[in-house]
Amino acid sequence: MTYQQRRTAFSERLAGVADLAFFPRSADLQYLTGVPRDIPNFGAVLHPGAWLEGAWFGPGGTPLLALPRMTAEFGGVSGADDVVLQVLQDHDDPAEMVRGFLRSFALPKRPRIAIGDATHGATVSALQALLPDATFLSASDLLRPLRVVKSDEEIALMRRAGEVTEAAFADVLARLEHGMTELDVVTEVDHQLRRHGSLGPSFTTSLYTSGPHHPLLFGQREATWRRALTPPVSILFDFGAILDGYCYDFGRTVFFGEPDDGYREAFGLVMASQAAGIAALRAGRATAAEADRAARAVIAEAGHGEAFRHRLGHGIGLDVHEPPFLTAGDDTPLREGMLFTVEPSITRFDTFSARVEDVVVVRPDGGEPLTAGFREMLVVD
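RESULT FIELD:
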């Protein structure tokens, strides 16, 4: 669909539910208008009046995009499709500008305002002050049914993002050596992603390393990044490329040294679990929870169920993680064109772990992986 077609479909969903919708700069906004997102920062970078940054959608008509001067000048919004741009100068009053927008929409006395889930609290507080009699609801919930099933064009774009990701991984593999630090490897991954055409990593590139001398540590990057990778150790990769705003998510395991029987078993089970999960992604014939259950059974029946610590996967597209989720309790029926990661793992804290991850399209007779390389046991001896 074109951006205009997407907006028309969203307007139809908005009608009768809300009088006006607001989306901050986000994947939702990019989906509707093409307004791009930039590479994120760790700390906030604020501009005067930053709370008004986003677009307003009335019942039909052209979206009104409001941006602070700094974002407008440096934010790369020139590719936006059919959007009226209003720029807030550094010395302007953002509340007065938004008050003018709201008057132009001729809202009822008690308006219903749908706001995107990524809207900042400062924006919500300012809107409540400007619209004290308004009722607020989620615009993302209204839009999500349109985003969850991907078009052929979106799937093709994700396939290309997967190609960039695999090309980067191939060049990383060629440079792996015993004694590299985790930071060395992460830096190489991020470099190769950009070298092959990605805007950058779609999320913080992660390694999960484990072995007798490499205890698995979650969430301690400043400690783990300094560790030298010396045999024997299993190295679990988790990363992905960004292409035209779409995010890939990919995982493989590399072993430094000679794999023992325990690692070989874990690797084989993870690959078999993924195959079962992919086969279960049958449009109109299964739910998200049933796909999770099919993959989990392979590892659980082998006696390692406690080491499969997370859901099987998640929706993916303009965001890295999107609903629905392949997890127990999510009974969303699978529909053709949905995209999910399928990422089983066996993670153990004091011995060897393994994981694999690919993005998979739901099809009538089972899933179609968008990446399929590097499925053999990868060993750097």
